[in-house]
């Protein structure tokens, strides 16, 4: 990394103490990337609900789309950070951004699935849905993957990251490039340390039990276990804002990511990759995703065009949050009707046989979800977010008007 401390006659401590200047570039390509990550998560859930032959090992890699969202979230929040922004206004904007669609994503599947829930389980299922709406789901190990919409756990993680960010954004931007480089290395080591500790505490097995795994579940899905991914995005954005430029272009960064995914695919039969809670997918992909995000951001900053920044990709990216929260519900409702399954857990305990006949149902689910999330975005998500931002999230920094970055939305 090249530090601005090398400029002639600059005080040695200045780069570490002074906040970086907010860039004036809107990073549309990152919005396009959000759609790819959301679609990867969709493919991952196909392997359980509507499996296709010979695709499981590849589609399962799509679970890392959540890791991508965490890294990208930290990057975008830091990229748009303004010194002096009030914490209350920041929290208001985050609430406006994530809560309206989260409420739909948690309550819609509850309404659809509640009639089939056994009487003795009704109260628990309702509490799980309420915990998701209140952004608490990821703090209760037994509920993280339970309930009627397993994907909502990641929003509880995001809420925790948001709670900390007002105290982290400015701090990161006041660090030197050398400090940020060291922090990136430490964060990756922490990620691997968590995984290795879990392997020691819960030795990987090909067919893990679904009981007695609360510590393992919490160690994989909780905000504490995943914050290093978010912080990696924060550090990457702070470094870019302070003048660092990655030597990897988009092609090279994408190639490195593809190589990492290829290695994971080649090791697909290893015990530590046999079940998602043991998988080191996030540990491998988080730093690689950070490199891709930086490379794509640099390309946008240089003014070069990108297919990721075209209008269709930006539209899809804007719809991706609703897509992420609603796709599992659509997939489950279709798969449940096709295979006469009454609960989500039945798909995991009694796997569906892979068949190319499921391809048509998968395409139907994709079409319905895309249409639904487009409508949700147009008539509910975006209008309500804008109204809530006016009431709750006004920034007091005049530079927002001149940069146009108030519209740069955090990818969840």
UniProtKB/TrEMBL annotation:
UniProt xrefs under Pfam families: Acyl_transf_3
Top-rank lineage group of the source organism: Bacteria
Alphabetic keyword roster: Membrane, Transmembrane, Transmembrane helix
Domain spans labelled Acyltransferase: 28-378
Membrane-crossing segments per the record: 32-52, 59-82, 94-113, 125-145, 151-172, 179-198, 218-240, 247-268, 280-298, 319-339, 359-380
Protein name as it appears in the record: Acyltransferase 3 domain-containing protein
Organism: Streptomyces pharetrae CZA14
């Amino acid at each position: 990394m090249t530090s601005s401390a090398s400029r002639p006659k600059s005080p040695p401590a200045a780069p570490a103490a002074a906040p970086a200047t907010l860039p004036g570039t809107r990073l549309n390509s990152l919005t396009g990337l959000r759609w790819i990550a959301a679609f990867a998560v969709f493919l991952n859930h196909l392997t359980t609900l509507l499996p296709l032959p010979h695709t499981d090992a590849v589609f399962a890699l799509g679970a890392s789309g959540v890791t991508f969202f965490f890294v990208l979230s930290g990057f975008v929040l830091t990229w748009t950070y303004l010194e002096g922004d009030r914490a209350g206004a920041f929290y208001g904007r985050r609430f406006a951004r994530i809560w309206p669609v989260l409420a739909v994503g948690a309550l819609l599947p509850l309404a659809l699935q509640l009639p089939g829930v056994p009487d003795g389980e009704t109260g628990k299922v309702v509490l799980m849905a309420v915990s998701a709406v209140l952004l608490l789901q990821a703090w209760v190990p037994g509920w993280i993957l339970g309930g009627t919409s397993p994907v909502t756990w990641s929003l509880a993680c995001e809420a925790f990251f948001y709670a900390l960010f007002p105290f982290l954004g400015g701090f990161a931007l006041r660090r030197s490039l050398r400090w940020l480089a060291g922090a990136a290395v430490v964060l990756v080591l922490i990620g691997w340390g968590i995984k290795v500790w879990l392997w020691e505490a819960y030795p990987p097995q090909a067919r893990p039990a679904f009981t007695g795994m609360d510590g393992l579940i919490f160690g994989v899905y909780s905000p504490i276990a995943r914050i290093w991914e978010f912080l990696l995005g924060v550090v990457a954005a702070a470094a870019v804002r302070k003048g660092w430029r990655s030597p990897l272009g988009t092609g090279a960064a994408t190639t490195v990511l593809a190589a990492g995914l290829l290695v994971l695919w080649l090791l697909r039969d290893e015990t530590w990759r046999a079940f998602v809670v043991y998988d080191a997918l996030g540990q491998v992909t988080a730093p690689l995703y950070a490199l891709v995000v930086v490379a794509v951001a640099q390309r946008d900053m240089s003014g070069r065009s990108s297919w990721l920044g075209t209008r269709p990709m930006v539209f899809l990216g804007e719809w991706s949050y609703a897509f992420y929260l609603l796709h599992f519900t659509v997939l489950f409702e279709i798969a449940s009707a096709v295979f006469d399954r009454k609960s989500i857990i039945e798909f995991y305990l009694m796997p569906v046989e892979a068949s190319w006949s499921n391809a048509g149902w998968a395409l139907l689910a994709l079409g319905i979800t895309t249409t639904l999330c487009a409508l949700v975005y147009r008539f509910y998500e975006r209008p309500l977010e804008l109204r809530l931002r006016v009431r709750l999230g006004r920034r007091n920094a005049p530079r927002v008007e001149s940069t146009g970055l108030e519209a740069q939305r955090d990818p969840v």
